[in-house]
Structures are given as structure tokens and as C-alpha cells.
Amino acid sequence: MRHPILFSAALLGAMSLAACERSGEAQVNRALQDVNVVDETNLNDVMLTVGDPDEAVNYFSRASANDPGRIDLMRGLAKSLVRARDYDRAVAAWTDVTDHEDSGLDDQVDLADALIRTNQWDRAEQVLDAIPPTHETYERYRLEAMVADSNEEWDNADSFYETAAGLTTRPAGVLNNWGFSKLTRGDYSGAEELFLDAIQNDRDLFTAKNNLVMARGAQRNYDLPVIPMTQIERAQLLHTMALTAIKQNDVTIGRGLLREAIDTHPQHFEAAARSLRALEDNVTN
């Protein structure tokens, strides 16, 4: 008479064990899902920063196709297209992101950036104008400054550049852009100050060094500034200074600067040598 009881007890034990096993499997599956999410997030970050841009485009294209509608993957694709300099497709990708129900104001800023890269200034301005003024970010004001520059609204450009520079701990790039804006307006001394500020914030920013030399040369100041530079950079800056002098008909000074650039460069400086040959041929003719 005990057999049914033993059988029931055994059955209950087996059911309990099965339930525990199923519970354990569920926990393991959840844990694996969490790990996969973490791994995917890390991989996404790698692709967006140090990965090859074209590989990143392929990765996010496949991921978006496999999981359509995921806005993080859509953003990843759009950012990767910008890194790959495929700006037309980047505009389309950012447009898709901004049409998503979970998109935010930063996505609109990124769309405006892509539009500027494709010279769609009017549309970029429309996108920026639609963003509430309370959305105060470095990227937003950097783009606002560029749009104001394109419209030759100099006061607005200066205001936006100043605001952008104050919203980042790495202002060298925007200071360089602001300086170039003043350079194109003919405010050479103002440009010189901004390029110096940019270099103080990033001593490796060669673009600012080159622009600084052009600003000084435009004022017929042909002495290299006292700034950090390598020997190769010194030769390149002398070359830029020489071309600036020649452009202003200070040919003798320009010739001397070209020769100094050739002598300064640790290797053969073909660009400077070519400029010197062209200058001497022109003078001879």
C-alpha cells in the first residue's frame, strides 16, 4: 500500500527537480542575454571609435537589417557613415533617425552637421532653427556659428563661436574655426589672437599653426611665431609664409623663405623645391 505514496513522492521530487532545472536554465539564459547586451554595447562603442569606418558601416548596416527600428543601431550607422565620409548616405541615415519616435534633439544637431558636410546650408539652418533655444550644447552652437559665417552674419557668428568655446573643455578646434572666420573677413590681428589661443589649448593642432602663419603674413609679418613646432613643421610653416609673401609681391622675401624651408626640412622638401623652381622660372621669363 505504500507504493502509490512513494511514487507520488518520487513524482513530486522529479517535478520539483525539473522546475529547479527550468528555473536554472531561465537564469542562465537571462545571464547570457545580459552578457550579450554588454558585449554588443562594447562592440558598438569600438566600432564607433577605433574601428575602421567602412567596417563600422558594414557592421551597423547588418545589425540594423537584423534588428530594424533599433535607434541605437540606426545612430551607429549614421555616425559611421560620417566617419567614412559618405556624407550623402549619412544625411539619409540621420533623417531616418530624426523620424524615429525615440529620437532626441541631439539627433537633429547631428542631422544639421551632416547637411553642412553636403553643403546643404539652407536645410541645415532650418533644422537648427527648429531646435529649442534651451538646447544649449557645444555641437549646436558650433554649427550655428558655421551657418552664421556662411550667411556673413558676423556678429552672430562671433557670439555663437564664443558660446561654443565656453561649452567645451577642448576648445582648440572651434577657436581655430573662429580664427579662420576672422581671417576671411580681413581681421588679421583678431584671427592671430584666436589661432594662438587654439594652439595654447592644443599644441599639436598644425592647422591652427598654419593659419597663424597666414594671418601674420597677411600683415607682412614674416617672422615665425614662437610656438611649439617640430623641425618638419617649421619647414612647412616657412613654406606657407613664403607663399603668403609671394602672393603679396614680396618676392625677394618669399624666395629667401623658400630656401630656408628647403634647408630646414630633414628630408627632401619637394613642395618647397617646386615652388622655388616655379618662382625662379617666372622671374627669368
* Biggest sheet character: none
Q: Beta fraction of the residues?
A: under 5%
What value does the Rg take, in angstroms?
A: 30 Å
Report, as a whole number of angstroms, the end-to-end distance.
125 Å
Tally of DSSP β-strands: 0
Low-confidence stretches: 1-21, 28-38
By DSSP (H or I, 4+ residues per run), the number of helices equals 14
Average pLDDT number: 88
Helix content: over 70%
So what's the overall shape? elongated
Oligomer: single chain
| Helix-strand makeup class | mainly alpha
* String of helices and strands: HHHHHHHHHHHHHH
Task: Kindly list the characteristics that best describe this protein.
285 residues, mainly alpha, 14 helices, elongated, disordered N terminus
Explain this structure to me?
The protein is mostly helical and 285 residues long. The protein has helices at 3-49, 53-66, 71-83, 87-99, 105-117, 121-129, 138-150, 154-166, 172-185, 188-201, 206-218, 231-247, 251-264, 270-284. The protein has a domain at 229-284. The protein is built from 14 helices and no strands. It starts with a helix and ends with a helix.
Topology:
Layout: H1 3-49, H2 53-66, H3 71-83, H4 87-99, H5 105-117, H6 121-129, H7 138-150, H8 154-166, H9 172-185, H10 188-201, H11 206-218, H12 231-247, H13 251-264, H14 270-284
How do you describe this structure in short?
This is Flp pilus assembly protein TadD, contains TPR repeats. With 285 residues, the chain is mostly helical.
